[in-house]
Design a protein that fits this description.
By secondary structure, the protein is α+β, with helices and mostly antiparallel strands. Helix content is 22%, strand content 34%. It contains three helices and nine strands. It has a six-stranded antiparallel beta sheet. The longest helix is centred in the first third of the chain and has 16 residues. The radius of gyration is 21 Å and the shape is globular. It starts with 5 loop residues before the first strand and ends in a 7-residue tail after the last helix.
Length: 171
């Protein structure tokens, strides 16, 4: 089970990270939320499964969660991490290998606080279940991939250079 829980340390509330991958806990919680709160809403995509995948990145759990109503990125504390309890809906900018992203502090009943960044809400009604599963894996791979950067020799895409090259000269 998850080790995430509140502790009182020097009058500052903190919570302990997850020793193991929290993806199964996220799936279980979102399944309950789907059943009890979301399935009657007009944007609920009934054929979409609930999928969560997480990987450790710099000692934090970085994940992607798909539900019948949204696709989101999540960050949870990793093993041996202590996170301060923050105000719900606080915003934090995080620098990921793919670039900077803004996350909001959210909270789930069983896992406690997490950072979340919505990528798609509501879901495209034409998105199929297998496409959704694939989207979770692809998104997570993209998130912890380094951005592509142009080599040392840049390409001059200025209009004058692009349209002004003379025959026999490289564009």
């Amino acid at each position: 089970m998850a080790q995430s829980h509140l502790s009182e340390v020097d009058a500052v509330q903190e919570f302990i990270g997850f020793a193991s991958n929290p993806a199964p806990l996220l799936v279980a919680q979102y399944e309950r939320i789907a059943r009890e709160e979301m399935q009657g809403l007009p944007f609920y995509h009934a054929t979409m499964p609930i999928v969560a995948e997480c990987v450790l990145l710099e000692e934090q759990w970085l994940g992607c969660v798909l539900t019948p109503w949204m696709l989101s990125l999540v960050v949870l504390p990793g093993p041996d991490q202590l996170w301060p309890v923050r105000s719900s809906s606080d915003r934090l900018a995080l620098q990921l290998p793919c670039g900077n992203m803004t996350f909001m502090v959210g909270e789930l009943p069983e896992t406690g606080q997490l950072l979340a960044c919505s990528l798609m809400s509501p879901l495209d009604p034409h998105l199929g279940a297998e496409e959704g599963r694939s989207l979770v894996s692809s998104t997570l791979k993209m998130l912890h991939s380094l951005p592509l950067q142009q080599g040392a020799v840049g390409v001059d895409l200025g209009r004058r250079r692009l349209f002004g090259a003379r025959r026999g000269q490289p564009a």
